[in-house]
Here is the input.
Amino acid sequence: MKIGFDVSDLCTNRADGTTRYTMELAKRLPGIGSEHEWLYFAPFDFAHPSTVSSGSNGGKPWPANVRKVLSPWPKYWTQSRLPWDLYRYHPDVLFMPIQQIPFARPKKMKTVAVIHDLAFHIYPEQFTYKDWLLQHVFTAYVARNADKIIAVSQATANDIAKYYDRTENVHVVHHGVNHQVFRPVEERHPQLSAPYLLYVGQIQPRKNMIRLVQAFEILYQQEKNLQLVIAGSHGWLNTPIYRYIGVSLARSNIIQLGRVGDKLLPALYSHAEVFVLPSLYEGFGMPILEAMACGCPVVTSNISSMPEVAGEAGILVDPNSVESIAEGIQEARSRREELQEKGLQHARQFTWEKTVQQTGKVLF
Here is the structure.
């Protein structure tokens, strides 16, 4: 079988869940499907995912069953150049790790697409109009035309049924954790020493960061050496978030690190008092498991996919209540050792190897 795989996210410099998902699957799928030919379609050249995730500058050879198909026509690539290559190479199956499939494609080719979340239905005001419109058009087309859909959580599968009335050939496949990278470590982040709370993720409205800062302000009044560390970039509509941080009474104790690579992320997680993800909506919430795998207590929201991902190993709070978030953080700090052990055990249930095996069953 010839399997096409859109790996265009590997050409970006983003540090979001979809990019990590693509990276982890791209380096593992050919191993479990060694009898298949893999065509990795992309608009630019890209490094081997193992090289990227390790931070190494050295190249790593691709398996013999992987062939890169690079396009010299990157603009509007998914709907313009990718169809051209599909007709040229005729894969039997096309795997799209994003909420989009080409409108023009060979009729006999099967399509498998991944729907990560439907936040644009629930919080349309938190998207630019262009992004909101494109998300609607592309995701609706996937929901109605993809042969098979992978939903990254049962919560997302429920949303697909709710908004698109589709339940047939919708497969729930959870994300995993790279336990070789995300594990408790002794090393500390070189910029941090005082006790700190941690947020890792994009800077955007859906992440509910203004309420997180407000909850931190409550705790800061009681403990002046406590810090809030924000590790993230690449967002949208985030000017009000940065503006609020800039005028916060606790701004001197809010550390904005920007994007942090995998070399330092485990140290950030390992020594944080609590990891906090009070999102209003998540398709999955990968940092929840990364934090747990590093032995960090987790506080997250009691809605959407987050209870599904955190299980009984995290503290669930009402994301619309600043007081609930602050109380959840304090509870997590008081139960630190218990939650560390629960989190480590819970995270072990999620591996990329399991994700890849389940994805292979959908593809092959």
